[in-house]
What we know:
By secondary structure, the protein is mostly helical. The protein has a domain at about 50-135. Helices cover about 75% and strands about 0% of the residues. It contains six helices and no strands. Helix 3 runs antiparallel to helix 4 (about 70-95) and helix 4 (about 70-95) packs antiparallel against helix 5 (about 100-120). The two termini are about 45 Å apart.
Amino acid sequence: MWGAIFEMFKTKNMKKSLLLLLIFAVMQAGAVMAQPGGHGGPGSHKMNPEEMARKRTDRITQELNLGKTESDKVYQIELDRAKAIEKQMQTQQQEGNGKPDFSAIKKLNDERDTKLKALLGEERFNKIKAKEQEMRQNEPPKQQ
C-alpha cells in the first residue's frame, strides 16, 4: 500500500505539492499549539458567580483579617455583583452582542464599592483598593 502512495509522488510537481502540504500542516499545528486557553477552551475553567465571589471574599478576608460576620457580608456583596455580571453577559450573548458592556460592569463595580466602603470603612476599603491596584500592575500583559 505504501509503495503505491510513494509511486504517486515521484513526479516533480507532486513532490513540490507534498512538500508544501507538509509545511502547511506543520505551520497549522504550531499555530494551534500556540493558542492560549481562553474562556471555554481547553485548559480553561470559567468560574461561576459563587466561585468568583468566594475567591474575592477570601482575599479580602485574609488581607483585612475579617471576622465571620463581616466576611459573610462581603461574600453577599460580591455574590450579588458576580450574579449581576453573569446575567449581563448572558443577556448580551442572547442579543448577539459579543462584546461586554463595560459601562454596565463599571456601574456594578461602583455599586459594590459603595457597599463595601459602608461595611468596611474608608481606611480598610482604601487598603483593599490599593492592593487591587498593586496586583493589576504586577499582572503580565494580556494577549490579544
